[in-house]
Amino acid sequence: MNVLEQFHDWLANYWPSWAAYLVPALVAFAVLSTFILLVVLVFIYVERRGVGRFQVRRGPNRAGPFGILQPVADAVKILTKEDIIPSAGDRWVHLLAPVIAFFPALAIFAVIPFEGRAIFADLNVGILYIIAISSLGVIGTFMAGWGSNNKYSLVSAMRAVAQMISYEVPLVLSIAGVLIISGSLSMTSIVEAQEVPFFLLQPLGFLIFFIAAAAEIQRSPFDLLEAESEIVAGYHIEYSGMKFALFYLAEYTHAFAISAIVVTLFLGGWHGVLLPGALWFMIKVFLVFGALFWVRSTLPRLRVDQLMGFAWKCLFPLALINVFITAIESVIWPEFPWQLLILNILIAALLIVLWSGFFRVAGERVSFQRYGRGIIKGLTVTFSHLFRRPITVQYPEQRLTPAPRFRGNMLVWDQDACIGCRACARACPVSVIDIETTKGDKGQIVEKLEVDFGRCLFCGLCVEACPVKAMFMSRDYEQASYRREQLVVSKEQFVAAEKRRSAYFYPDLEAEMPLQTLLAPPKEES
Amino acid sequence: MDNVGITASFWVLAVVCVASALAVVFLRDIFRAALFLVLCFFTVAGVFVILSADFLAVAQVLIYVGAIAVLIIFALMLTRGTQQGSPSGRFRFTAFLVGAVFLVTMILVVTGTDWQAITETPTGSTTSALAHALFSEEEGFILPFEIAAALLLAAVIGAIVLIREK
Known about the structure:
The complex is a heterodimer of chains A (526) and B (166).
Chain A: H1 3-12, H2 17-54, H3 70-79, H4 91-107, H5 126-134, H6 137-147, H7 151-182, H8 187-192, H9 198-201, H10 203-216, H11 228-231, H12 241-266, H13 277-298, H14 304-332, H15 340-356, E1 360-361, E2 364-365, H16 368-384, E3 411-413, H17 423-427, E4 433-440, E5 443-452, H18 461-465, E6 471-473, E7 488-489, H19 491-496
Chain B: H1 2-26, H2 30-50, H3 54-78, H4 92-112, H5 127-135, H6 142-163
């Protein structure tokens, strides 16, 4: 008996039966969907930050501490956008598409057991229900592609359906192995059957399911239907505002759902030590989701023919073989002792290595030694980026220290050292230094110094020409203004400016300069 | 309580089902017609749920919505000029005749059959019962099932042979 049924039984003592039936369902639905949306917001944030770390670039870091408010800011932005409906499109199909795309992703959660008793409805056909419901998502994509009356969205929708139909086959077949071992279609019984997590007993099935699931939810490397370089944005190209937000949410809700299914089917669901089951479940979900975007941030997108070939020639036969082997094993060892995992892992490794030999890329036989190692190597490289020192700079407040001999975009002038010899002006190949001097008590006095940085080449010849170390290149690397004449820097501005000298031409200055930020060793952090 | 709820949901489903079926026939926009077909299949699945036939309901969605309807829509997208509505067919009269014959046959069969309503409430899951009915060796349909599988395989191979370029 799950929590929902308990609530219903308790309520039935006080309220009329229809209310006792309806209210718990509505409450559970509200709680569940709120929880899902919150997790999805966290997912969006975590993925954007995580992909930033994996790829050594920035994630959202401006809104709030560590950019944590970015999803909120995005939501506000999206809500205030104009709602555009293509005039030549099919209005109702266009409007309904995001809802229909979002619905199946949400409906999957009805049978996900977050814990033994925390499940909306423990259907005894649970996993079949999931397969059936998730095949609906493609209709939403279709409607979006068609209703927008846009050739790119139509192409994207066609790709989507071809991809989803193809990858559904290995997806379902890889589940069959799990079903043979657990002997049930109910999600709770599948979890309860996992004394050993099924990804050990079904390593091949797990891999196939993971890959096919990534293709089902169109995550990179299978995100052909939103390949920006080919079809701009894919099926949601004509969508703006809240309708686009629904597609976006649907994508991440689907990712959450798929992670939850992987955890339920292969990673032992809520089983775990010490911590409460629901917490274990969420930890595992986040690990699976992390793996999803780890792969996403590493592998490049596939070509259409490669995508289809991979589904039909690689995943499909391997999934069939997996079902076959599992069925034979279930006849020989009906109890599925855990020792089988050694045999199954060996079979999986052997099959993958052998099967990859059937394929040709650019007329050359695919060898696992080359491509398999390449993929693993790529994954380790991106993973190692997680442990790098973050190099994020909050730019206008915080600046990078450039290389010591950096030639910045302004000169530093030392008035006290200057003797007014005008060597700099004579050395300047583009004559942008305008200097006027008068005779003073102790040599020349600089009356006027104007440098037009709009025409300056930053060649550094003026610095080299100066006999008395009065002219330096600067470390600054930005100079922006609204008008050209503001680029002409006068004597007063030179005097007032901060003296951020670069070590260009004066290597002895390097000692007093802060270390370069970008490649500095970690010990320098202060 | 259950009776009221189930009756209410049955009528909602029935009305939506018949209405969407009519829409499939009468709409000129063929893409929308296909979408209403999806809705129709879906409501039929809902009726199965009311009858406690959970496996059938899921199979209905899986096969009719997930596979057949999607394939129909996919075929529509590959067809030119679908937005202008269905063209006036040369087979209009023949189609009407076949449709009328089919309708009359169905009405006769449905009204002529002596339907036996089961009074006891269905219990438990239907999945294992279905499996036993299909696969058990004593009173099951294992042989017809295998024959159907072989037939499907033959059809698949035949389709591949037909579309292969010589």
